[in-house]
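Sharing a chain and its predicted structure for anyone who wants a worked example. Both blocks are below, sequence first, tokens second.
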Amino acid sequence: MKLLRFSSDGQVRYGAVEQRQIRELTGDPYGTLRFGPRSFQLDDVTLLPPCEPSKIVAVGVNYRAHAQEMGHRLPGEPLLFLKPSTSVIGPGAAIHYPEGVTRLDYEAELAVVIKKKTRSVTPAQASEAILGCTCLNDVTARDLQQKDKQWTRAKSFDTFAPIGPWIVTDLDPSNLKIEGILNGQTRQSSTTADLIFPVPVLVSFISSIMTLLPGDVITTGTPSGVGPLQRGDTIEVVIEGIGRLTNMVR
């Protein structure tokens, strides 16, 4: 099932999309799904970020090929950082190129959305905590990351976390093709089979540190092929079984 947030007639709603039609949900998608009486055409609504996370827990250097690309040793445990909720934008929204930044990079990533309050689960229990998977672009001010030697400022500007277009439930995240496409040219192409720490391990590890809340996002790292964005560029994150997240740089 594809779950999404959308705006129609000035109202924000949750829904489930099949082909090009959306069935409205009453309430949010984190409990029992209940459908309302209204339906909408996908082309007639504005897609919003599919969730409203209290936090985005991101994992750095989690693809083997990307670790080699960046000159890093393979980590012995997940390398975590946070992106704030204020960095979230939805499909089609603009990524803003901050003043003073000299290199802005795209990072195509698979993200998982948490379904319920979760603390200290095992990898075997992780699937019970996951609502589904979506696409995320971990936009990064690479010059600031290198300057600061830690990642908070470089990862946290407003608009630096495009998410969407929807959350796909019941999707096995272990071997999905993932691509980053810049202005129509494929720059990143890999599969989640190259993850150093797979999704169940990440959910377990992170939940042993912090409580995860419904709607929180864990984004799992980026493949090799990261590179710079310029003003006017179109960047797409395409993941097998999910779809395409498209944003432009302003």
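Comments welcome. The first helix runs from residue 64 to 70.
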